[in-house]
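Record Thiol-disulfide isomerase or thioredoxin, 448 aa.
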Amino acid sequence: MKKTVLSMLMLAFSATGWAQHATINGKFIKEPTSTVNTSQIYLFKADNGGYVPTAMIPLTRHDHSFQVQLADSDLNVIRYIGFEDEIYPVYMRKGDTLTLNGGLGEIAYSGMVNTENKVFADWNKMVTPLRKYSYTKEGFKQSYNHYAPTLDSLIKPVEKFVNNIKTGNAKFDSDVKILLTYSFRDDALGPFAEGLGYSKRDQYPAFIADLLKTENFSNPQIWTLPFGYSYIQTIVFVKHYIYNSENGFLEDIIATEITDPKMRADYMLTLLERGEYQHMAAFVKNNKQYMVTNEQKKKMKIFEKTANLREPGGEAIDFAYPDMNGKVHHLKDYRGKVVLVDLWATWCKPCLAEQPALETLEKSLEGKNVVFISISIDTDKDKWKNMVEEKKLSGLHLYSNNQGSMMGDYEVREIPRFILIDKNGKMVSYNAIRPSDPKLKELIESKI
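=>
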C-alpha cells in the first residue's frame, strides 16, 4: 500500500513538473533536397530580417516524429518551427501542449490549441492552396492558369481574416497582423522565385502587378519578420528581372528600392554578411553612404577593411601566430620583404601534394628578398610539429589552432590557400595561384 501511494505521489509530482513546461510534438515531412537536412527541424526566432535557431529538434527515422520542450525564453512570443526553408509560427505559454503535423506547404495544429495558435491554424488552412505552389513538386509544375485563380480567390478572405484578428492579446494581435499580411505577399511571390512567369506583363495577376509597383519598403516592421530579407530580395528580383525583363546585378539595384533608411542599411549589411555580391569592394564603396546608426557605420568599416584587403594594392591586415618554440611572429615583422603565406594542415592531401613544389620554389628564391610563411590550421599541435620536423620542411612554420586573423580577416574557409603580399604590406593576390604553377614564381620575382 505504501509503495502504491509513493508511486502515485511521484507520478503526481512528475506531472506537475511537466505541466510547468510547454511542449510541442508531432511529425514533419519534407521531400529530400541537397541543401536541407530532412532528418531534423528547428525552433527559430526572428532576428535581423531573418531567423536564427533556438533549438535543434531531431526527427525519428521511421515516422519523422518529434517532441520538444520549450525554454522559458521561447514562451509568450511568436516563434517558428520547421525546416530551414519552410517554417510555421507558434505561440506557446507555460503548460501548453501542442501537436503539429506539417511539411510540404501545410500544417495541422491540434491538442491544446490556445487562442493564438488557433489564429495560425486557421490561417494556414486557408492559405495552403497557395503555399503548395512553392513547397511541392506538384506545385512547381502547375501553370499560371492555375496559380492566378488560386491567388485571386484568397485576396478578400485574407484581408477579412487579418482585420478580424482579436485574441485579447494586444501585442500578439498587433504583431500577427503585420506577420500575416506580409506572409501572404511572400507566399504569393514564391512561385515566381521558383520559375513561374508570364510572357506579357498584362497577364500578371493584378495583386502581383500592384505589389511590384507600390512596395517601397517604407515599413520598418518588415525587418522584424523572419522572411524580411528574402521578401525584399524576392520583390526586387521579380520586379526587375521577371516583370520588367531587365539585366544587371541585384546588388546594384536594391539600394534605391528601400526607402526606410535604417532598414536599407541593415539589408546592405546582411547582404555582405551572407556574401551575396559580385564585387565586394565596389559594393562597399557604393553603399557605405547608406549607413545610419553608429553601429551600422562600425560594421561597414569592418567590411570595408576586408574588401580592401581582397583588392590588389589593398592594405594587408596584420596577423600573429607562434612558431614551434612559442615565439610569436607578426606579418609586420617582415615589412620590406615579399611574403608568401601558405595555409595548410597535416590532414589536407592537396596541401601535402603542393609541398614538394613549395620546397622547390623556396630553394629557387633562397637569398632573395622574400619570406615563406606556412600557417597550419591543425588543432592537433603535436601532429603538426612532428610532420614539420620529420619532413624537415623549410620556411617559417606557424601554428594557428584554426583561430585568429586568418580565419576571421582573411576568411580562410578552404585549403590549400596561398596569399601574396608585397614589400610594403600591400596585397598582391588574396587567393594566389599554387606553387605547382610556374606563374607564381614569376609573380613573386616581379615584386622583389
